Amino acid sequence: MWVGAGSSVFYESGETSHFMREQARVEAVGLAISRNDRYIFTDLNFSLEAGQILQVEGHNGSGKTTMLRILCGLTLPTDGEIRWCGENIRKNLAEYHAQLAYVGHAPGIKDDLTPLENLSLAGAMDRPRDGANAEQVLERLRLPAFCDDVPCRNLSAGQRRRVALGRLLMLDAQLWVLDEPFTALDPAGRRLVEELLSEHAKAGGMAVMTTHHAVNLDGCTVHRLQLGT
Amino acid sequence: MSEAKLGTAFISLLRRDLMLAYRHRAQMMNPLLFFVIVVSLFPLGLDPEPELLHTIAPGVIWVAALLAAMLSLDNMFRSDFEDGSLEQLLLTPHPLPLLVLAKILAHWLVSGLPLLLLAPLLGMLLNLGSESLFPLLATLALGTPVLSLIGSIGVALTVGLRGGGVLLSLLILPLFIPVLIFAAAAVGNAGAGLDITGQLAFLGSLLALAFALAPLATAAALRISLN
């Protein structure tokens, strides 16, 4: 694990942990993004291997969300590139996206569908996890039973966030990209997400997330990347 | 390890959009009601001479169909953009143009196909003879998918903009002109007992062209809008 950049980023090194799909690696090389003729960050570099989790920190407007969108291939960086297993993701975006699950600010769920319908759809649209079952996922997310059949618009913000995070359990993705996953969650919900993250890391997955919360993951080192200091 | 299946994704997306349209039945009906009302205003505003109505019927029905399509187009990607579903669509491993095609097909089934069902009634209202009925349906069957296909490009370009509705009309309506010209001419010619094969062939080729190119252009436009 290494992270580093011009003057704006410090790094904390940690030890790689678990090996299942260990050859996978995601790297950012010389990333820069400008908005309104002003650079938000320049020369941002990091590399993440199987079993590692990266927490991106920074004040509002420091480019955290933009960085995650670049990492997903949604936004083009002004300079630099993202590499998956050593290859620029632009060369084979479909293969990269098959390995990726993204939960952004917008939940990516339809308010007029029930949680069950939303999760089944998430599985059908992408590469589903072996044996993934929307009902079991909802159970794991600890949504009250009556929530299964009501449209998501009638759920609370925290419950909707749980449904959105259910995508992570429906998909067979090695790289999780999470934008403020703890927003709107109660302490139990936060613990649940931490549980999911540490299970994911132990199974050889990797995750990049932005959050202002202190994250406490059992048996996993959380590497930190500071933007815009 | 399970694989992402394109067929499953296409069908799921189509079914999702139809289900959402069904759950918003009232919203879905609005453009259709608009279509009926606009067409039925003409006999009220003009001299209700059967001959005059017979002459203007093809143009009126087609212009109303274009405007109804404009109304329904705006919703094609809007809610997906706002709730983040569009981002997720871009992040699936499937070719985006094909997923876009599923959305366009759903749009046509919900907003284009019902126009076909209503058109014979409105034709009778405007004294369109029975000899023009089949040509009217044929032009709508060939033309309304073109409206959904071309419209999707404009919607994809304007989805991220505030007040994109007016801009959408300015972008898209000029592109609908060839469809309007050939479709209205075909129905008019049929009423005069002339051959309409040429016009139908033109509409068919427009459909083929739009079918082949519009999903690609829409997918590219979506990537730009979400960048």
Helices of chain A, by number, come to: 6
CATH topology (level 3) name of the largest domain in chain A: Rossmann fold
The beta-strand count of chain B equals 0
Radius of gyration of chain A: 17 Å
Proportion of helical residues of chain B: over 70%
Encode the helix/strand succession of chain A as letters: EEEEHEEHEHHHEHEE
Please state the second-level CATH architecture of the largest domain in chain A. Answer: 3-Layer(aba) Sandwich
User: What is the name of the CATH class of the largest domain in chain A?
Assistant: Alpha Beta
CATH superfamily of the largest domain in chain A: P-loop containing nucleotide triphosphate hydrolases
Shape of chain B: elongated
Structural class of chain A: alpha/beta
Q: What is the domain total for the residues of chain B? A: 1
Distance between the termini of chain A: 21 Å
What does this structure look like?
The complex is a heterodimer of chains A (229) and B (227). Chain A has helices at 64-72, 93-98, 115-125, 134-140, 157-170, 187-202; strands at 2-5, 25-35, 38-49, 53-58, 79-84, 87-88, 100-103, 175-179, 206-210, 222-227. Chain A is α/β, with parallel strands linked by helices and 229 residues long. Chain A folds into two domains: 1-99 and 175-229, P-loop containing nucleotide triphosphate hydrolases (Rossmann fold, 3-Layer(aba) Sandwich), CATH 3.40.50.300; 101-173, no CATH class. Chain A has a five-stranded antiparallel β-sheet, covered by helices on one side. Chain A has a five-stranded parallel β-sheet with strand order 7-8-9-4-10, sandwiched between helices. With 227 residues, chain B is mainly α. Chain B has one domain. Chain B has helices at residues 6-23, 25-45, 50-73, 75-83, 85-90, 96-125, 133-158, 164-191, 197-226. In chain B, helix 1 (6-23) crosses helix 6 (96-125) and helix 8 (164-191) packs antiparallel against helix 9. The model of chain B has no long low-confidence stretch (mean pLDDT 92). The interface between A and B is medium-sized, with 33 and 29 residues.
